[in-house]
């Protein structure tokens, strides 16, 4: 799936965009029940006389009452639409909480530098970290424009001197570089900050 933020995804597939929010559905299957005198019209509104004629639905949010006039077929149509929307939301949630997205979220930037600070993790954790980085490289970095990797240490280690255009060869090269890293490397208490500053010094990186 494309790397789309949840806000952008909702703009495309949300209930409101597809006229499936509660207020939008109610306006299509009935009309609001009113008992008040409308000054601009100079008379009571027509729905005042709907008492007992239609099934009614009361909105908990604002207490408004709607008279339901739709035929069964239209209501069943909205049921089907809402069930489809629920299924789509479930698929989106499963996608968001799986694999690299569960760890890194959804990458939005077109140029990134991943700073690797492994600290003093045990060898097995070191391998798990590298597995996670490989996963994000293959699943998400392949969909952006440029990237680079920097390893925190007494002497910073870079995969490339500056961010590099994404290609299959570049990703494979980065994965190979990653798995050739030594488990332990000397680092000072300022090494992480220095690595972040180095990452931000790349002109192509916006954030």
From TrEMBL:
Listed name of the protein: VWA3B protein
Taxonomic source organism: Turnix velox (Little buttonquail)
Taxonomic path: Eukaryota, Metazoa, Chordata, Craniata, Vertebrata
Gene for this chain: Vwa3b
């Amino acid at each position: 799936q494309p790397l789309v933020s949840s806000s952008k995804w909702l703009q495309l597939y949300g209930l409101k965009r597809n006229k499936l929010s509660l207020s939008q559905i109610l306006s299509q299957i009935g009309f609001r029940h009113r008992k008040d005198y409308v000054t601009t019209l100079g008379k009571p509104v027509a729905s005042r006389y709907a008492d007992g004629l239609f099934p009614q639905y009361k909105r908990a949010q604002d207490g408004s009452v709607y008279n339901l006039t739709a035929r069964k077929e239209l209501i069943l149509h909205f049921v089907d639409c809402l069930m489809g929307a629920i299924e789509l939301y479930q698929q989106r949630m499963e996608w968001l909480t799986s694999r690299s997205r569960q760890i890194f979220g959804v990458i939005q930037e077109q140029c990134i530098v991943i700073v690797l600070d492994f600290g003093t993790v045990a060898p097995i954790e070191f391998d798990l970290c590298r597995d996670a980085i490989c996963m994000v490289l293959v699943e998400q970095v392949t969909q952006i424009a440029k990237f680079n990797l920097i390893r925190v240490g007494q002497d910073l280690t870079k995969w490339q001197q500056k961010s590099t255009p994404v290609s299959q060869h570049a990703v494979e090269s980065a994965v190979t570089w990653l798995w050739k890293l030594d488990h332990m490397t000397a680092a000072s208490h300022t090494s992480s900050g220095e690595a972040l500053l180095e990452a931000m010094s790349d002109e192509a990186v916006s954030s």
